[in-house]
Amino acid sequence: MNSVYLDNGATSFPKAPGVSESMSNYILNVGSNVSRGVYASAHEAQTVLFETRELICDLFNFDKTENVVFTKNITESLNVIIKGLLNPGDHVIVSSMEHNAVMRPLSSLNKKGVEFSRIQCKSDGSMDINIVKQSIRPNTKAVIMSYASNVCGTILPLIEVGEICKKNNLFFIIDSAQTAGFLDMDYKKLNADAIAFTGHKGLLGPQGMGGFLINDTLASMVSPLIEGGTGSMSNSEDQPNYMPDKFEAGTMNLPGIFGFNASLKYLKRTGLKEIRETELFLTKRFIEKVNLMENVKIAGINGMENRTAVVSLDFQGFDNSEIAFALSNDFNIMTRCGLHCAPSAHMTLNTFPQGTVRFSFGHFNTESQIDYAIDSINKCIRKGF
Ligand SMILES: Cc1ncc(COP(=O)(O)O)c(C=O)c1O
């Protein structure tokens, strides 16, 4: 079997049809900057940029194109919002499943007096919504949560969390890294104030593209992390205060915008339902066979309820990294092994410090690849790596 890519939770591969063509079209035929030129190719770039903002609005059921901000990834987006919003004395609520893209900025702010409560999730990665209510303090400003764990694929009850935020007047900031392009994420139904996204995972776009959408109230309270040229208000040395220029200083990743535009169009054409059904069909096939194996534990939920296509395995009595190495070396199967940038999630799932071998399936994987992965895992176990 040719190489089998099962690391879509890290970044999707292959990318959506049309992505590389659109990027190379920009490099070869367009080439111009946006908001800075009056010639035809600058207009073309501007049109594609605007259309990409519209596609993001469409994906998340969001109304204001100018409040869609592009960054290089979700880590940058979360840093902009977290560091631009929180001041010493503020308190925020997160779950124990968060990625370091949330936890590291919070941890550094914590040293300067920002407080946070971490909702302890259960060992299957699920969360008791009542603990969120109980964690609210007079100085709580926001809840920041990932919609699904990047370690075990458990989906958190964010609709309910959004309702709690609305009732208690808290900002609700969502990390959509593991669910955008998989779940229908409706900004309004989620009662979100900001949704941060990354382009290169489930959104099937190129690396180096991410962003966030944000409402006016929250945007007015977030100060920009990066200031500089925007091609607008060039008579002033102050950063524009209006959207999206407030958060988009410096020349953008335009090849990335062109690629992302193509991937978002592909998602729209295909439909998230179709993508979700394919990925969950493959996940089910994998999980059912793993559940028959001895000495292999699925971290988190081992059924199909409330999950994405990320499955982490803990090989009891084996060194997980040796299994991942053997899968790569002997069978040409690409997985991710170790601790997946989320130490507290691993502690919650009892996979700290040994980590897991993470299999994450994508829209372009096939049944025969799943069967090959299962067969290869069985061979690794029999060989006793
Ligand atoms: C839940 C979650 N949040 C944030 C990130 C960070 O994504 P990026 O590296 O694209 O900024 C990841 C990526 O692994 C993730 O899974």
Could you characterize the architecture of this molecule?
This protein has twelve helices and 13 strands. The protein has 385 residues and is an alpha/beta fold. It has a seven-stranded mixed β-sheet with strand order 2-8-7-6-5-3-4, with helices on both faces. The chain has a four-stranded antiparallel β-sheet with strand order 9-10-13-12. The protein has a two-stranded parallel ribbon with strand order 1-11. Helix 3 packs parallel to helix 4 and helix 9 packs parallel to helix 12. The longest helix is centred in the first third of the chain and has 21 residues. The two termini are 21 Å apart. The mean pLDDT is 96. The protein binds pyridoxal-5'-phosphate.
Low-confidence sequence ranges: none
- Morphology call: globular
Question: What's the N-to-C terminus distance?
Answer: 21 Å
- Biggest sheet architecture: 7 strands, mixed
Number of helical elements: 12
Helix coverage percent? 25-40%
Mean pLDDT: 96
SSE topology string: EHHEHEHEHEHEEEHHHEEHEEHEH
What ligands can be seen in this structure? Answer: pyridoxal-5'-phosphate
SS strand fraction = 15-25%
Oligomer: single chain
Radius of gyration: 21 Å
Strand order of the largest sheet: 2-8-7-6-5-3-4
| Total DSSP E strands | 13
User: Structural class, from helix and strand content?
Assistant: alpha/beta
